[in-house]
Structure formats: C-alpha cells, structure tokens
Design a protein that fits this description.
Layout: H1 2-24, H2 30-48, H3 51-60, H4 65-113
Helix pairs in contact: 1-2, 3-4
C-alpha cells in the first residue's frame, strides 16, 4: 500500500510542477492553471491520506469507495467540458462579431475611396 501512496503522491506533485512550468511559460491561462493545480493537489492529498476517500465514502453512505472517486472524477470532467464549451461559444461569438465589424469597415473604406476606374 505504501507503494501506491508514494506513486499517487509523486504523480500529484509531478503534475503540479508541470502545471507551474506551463503557467510560467505562458502556455496555460492562469484560470485554467488554478483548476489543474487544484486537481493535482487533490491527487497529492489522496496519495498522502488514502483513508480519506474511504472516510468520505462511508460518510456519504457509499459502500465501495473507489466508486465515489470515479463518480467525482466524472462529475469534475463533465463540468470542465461544459466550461470549455461555454468558453468556445463565447470566443466563436466574438470572432463572428469581429468579422462583421471588419466587413463593415472594409465596405466603408471602399465607399470612401470611390470607384477604382
């Protein structure tokens, strides 16, 4: 069991280090970095105290504690996916509006320049 604890803790710490590097190199938006750092922190904490998931599962009335862990992981990933779709929709709307503004500016510029005969 100690090997699993060490592996899980090292994965959490390694993921945290990779996220910090991505944040410092500006490859990851700080808001997303906070999310992924919290995921890595939870992984590290569960590695240090594996009995905590058993305690939480017993408190919630779940007999098989890994099922709780998988359920929570699926819920977090669904929320992350929904957030990504919301952000993509917002960006697509902004790009569409920007394209419309550029088209209007080009139309005004062509009208002001007059016919090119």
């Amino acid at each position: 069991m100690a090997s699993l604890q060490l592996t899980t803790t090292l994965l959490g710490v390694g993921l945290s280090a990779a996220i910090v590097v991505l944040l410092r190199r500006d490859h990851l938006h700080p808001l997303y970095g906070v999310f992924w750092l919290s995921v890595a922190g939870v992984a590290a904490l569960l590695g240090l105290w594996p009995g905590s998931i058993d305690f939480i599962a017993r408190t919630a009335g779940i007999a098989y504690s890994p099922a709780l862990l998988l359920l929570l992981a699926v819920i977090v990933l669904l929320i992350k996916s929904l957030h990504g779709d919301i952000v993509n929709t917002r960006i697509e709307r902004q790009v569409r509006r920007l394209n419309q503004r550029v088209a209007l500016f080009e139309l005004e510029h062509n009208r002001a320049a007059g016919p090119l005969s």
